[in-house]
Each structure stands twice: as structure tokens, then as C-alpha cells.
Amino acid sequence: MQRASRSTLAALFALMMLAPVASAGSAVGLYEKISLSDHDLGLTGASVDPLGEWAIVFGAESYLELVSTSDPEDRVELVWNGEEDLAYGDFHPGGQTALIVGSEGQVLRYARSDHSVTDAGGDLEFGQISLTSVAWNSGGSWAYVGGTEVGYGG
User: Fold this and answer.
1) How confident is the model at residue 63 (pLDDT cuts 50, 70, 90)?
2) 10 Å Cβ neighbour count for 124?
3) In CATH, which of 1.10.3720.10, 1.10.1040.10, 3.40.50.2300, 2.130.10.10 is domain 43-154?
């Protein structure tokens, strides 16, 4: 009886080896190319709101634009007259505002209510430090801001 169960087990393993291997396809499909501009905007990143509906894209020379994640043709130009390179952004957990940071201590605040972009006073706090990251705490009562000091050290 032991010999019969061993041979049955061996036959099952052999059948399993002959069975086709299942492969999973990607759930993400890129079907259409959307271009924000005909020329290089110097984009460095994007921050998606907590509901996943809108993204702020940002980059060189203070480029800012709000783009719908469901229809990238639906966009709102965000006006800021700075020249700093913007490096990173993060939406407040409530989704109504976002902070965007960049070179020369730049901290900008985006407000969803009127799509305004204002100086949040980062240059007063950070001087010439090149800010490279920002992240709100989960309660939205404060944000981490990180950067590197330009020209410091040898």
C-alpha cells in the first residue's frame, strides 16, 4: 500500500510539472500619450491629492500646473512668477492645500479653493538651502521639510 501511494504521489508531481505555468499580465496599460507642452518643461515631479483626482506637476523655473488624473486634458494653469526650480510637493491630508518646495529655500502653498499659489515664507526660514522634500504628518498639523545646503563644505 505504501508503494502504491508513493507511485500515485510521483505521478501527481509529474503531472504538475507538465501543467502550463500561469502568468499574470500587468493591470496598468498605457494606451494614449498626453503631452503638456511641445518643449521640455523641466518637470521634476508631481503630487497627487488624497482622493487621487488631481495632481500638481512642477519643475524648473517654477513651472506649476494642476492636472486631472482621470482626464489629463483637463488642466488648470497655476500662476507663480518665481524662477526657482521646484523639487517636491505634498498635498495636505485634507486635500485642500499642498506645499511645494524648491531651490533657494522656496516653499509655496497651493490652495484648491481658488487655485492660488502663494509664498509660504520658506526663504525666511531656510535661506539659500535647496529644499528637496516635504511631507505632511498624517494629521496635517505640521510638515517635514528637508534639503541640502548649497555651497556648504568643501
Assistant:
1) very high
2) 10
3) 2.130.10.10
